[in-house]
Each structure stands twice: as C-alpha cells, then as structure tokens.
Design a protein that fits this description.
The protein contains 9 helices and 8 strands. The chain is α/β, with parallel strands linked by helices. The protein has a 5-stranded parallel beta sheet. The protein has a 3-stranded antiparallel beta sheet with strand order 3-4-5.
C-alpha cells in the first residue's frame, strides 16, 4: 500500500501548486483530480453543452476517456487520446467543472480511476472531496484555504501576467459563487474532513505552506 496525502480546499487556494511541490520534495506521484474534472468539462464544452443541461452532460460521460500521463516529468491530460492540457485553465472550463462535478454520474466516471492510482503508489491528490470521499483512508489530510480577497488577488495577478483582461471584482464574485456551489451541492460537498489539518495560507508564502505539509508527513 502506498502513502496517501489528500489536499482539499476551495477554488484558488493554491492546492495544485502546493501539491506538485510537495510531490517533488517527497518523490510522490501527483494526481491532479481537478485537471481530470476539467478534462471532462472540456469534453462537454467542445460538444456545445451548457452547464445547466444535466441530461446532456450525463450522456456525454459515456464516451469520454480522461487520462493523466507524465511526459518528461510534466503532467499531461488526454481526452479520448488527444492532449488537451492547454485548454484546462480557462474560466469556462473551470466553471463547467465546478457545476458538472456535482453530478453523481460525472463523479462516478472518475472515482474508480483516482482510487486505482493510489492503490500501490505514494500519491498526493488535491481537490474538493479527496479526504472525505476519494481517499477517506489517506495517511495525511490537509484542508488548504485562504480568504476570498487573497484568492481573487492571486488569480488576478496570474491572469494579468498572461496578458488576459480581467477585473478583480468579477474574479472575487466568481470565487464566492463557486464556493457556494461547492459547499452546498448534494453530492460530495466541499468540507473539511474531521481528521484533516487546517492550513490558512492567506499570510503564508508558497514555500511556507509546502514546508508545513512536508513536516506533517515526515
């Protein structure tokens, strides 16, 4: 059995960045579950499906195959054999993933793959329900969060660096709306597992968060 680290938290908390760095330090396999959901979201968007069309989303799951591969040490996400990594981080894909991930059939599509990856390897996964649903037996569970203002500012700066036009107020509103959806959905809502360690990164650097998690699992 491998050692399992589960990192949960709201959108924009830096889970993916932190998880990748911890994986590098510990020599673990990083499984980006959010990227897998975004991969399905790209599939839905490519078919012209809107987020509130549950019936079409469920049907579209039937012929979607999302896989993760590591090429030259870099994670790549494939959808039905095509590399879609460059499409994952758009706002549209993020919003579609947030809405569609609440649908039981969507979660069932990916749950088995996520669990199988952790059966005999040392892995770290991040998402919304890793410690509560995907890996309830994880050796270490972390709930990573930050204030809405902090998360919005980080996302704003990231988009500005890419040359993307954006407004801080709109980003903050989008994060608040996504938080509400994630915490109130009926299926696997975002919440801190009872045995998870809470880390608020609002006033912490990336290095400080990584070091804190590495110490917890050492």
């Amino acid at each position: 059995m491998g050692y399992k680290i589960a990192i949960d938290g709201p959108a924009g908390a830096g889970k993916s960045t932190i998880a990748k760095l911890v994986a590098n330090k510990k020599g673990f396999i990083y499984v980006d579950t959010g990227a897998m959901y975004r991969g399905l979201a790209v599939h839905f968007l490519d078919r012209g499906i809107v987020p509130d069309d549950r019936e079409k989303i469920v049907r579209a799951c039937e012929d979607a195959d999302v896989t993760i591969r590591y090429e030259n040490g870099v994670q790549q996400v494939y959808l039905n054999g095509k590399n879609i990594t460059s499409k994952l981080r758009t706002e549209e894909a993020g919003n579609m993933a947030s809405v569609s991930s609440a649908i039981p059939e969507v979660r069932a599509k990916l749950l088995e793959l996520q669990r199988s990856l952790a059966e005999d390897q040392n892995v770290i996964m991040d998402g919304r329900d890793i410690g509560t649903c995907v890996l309830p037996d994880a050796d270490l569970k972390v709930f990573l969060t930050a204030s809405v203002d902090t998360r919005a500012r980080r996302r704003y700066e990231e988009l500005k660096e890419k040359g993307t036009a954006c407004r801080l107020e709109e980003i903050a509103a989008d994060i608040e709306a996504r938080d509400l959806r994630d915490t109130t959905r009926e299926t696997a809502p975002l919440k801190q597992a009872e045995d998870a360690v809470l880390i608020d990164s609002s006033n912490m650097s990336i290095e400080e968060v990584v070091d804190a998690i590495v110490r917890l699992c050492s």
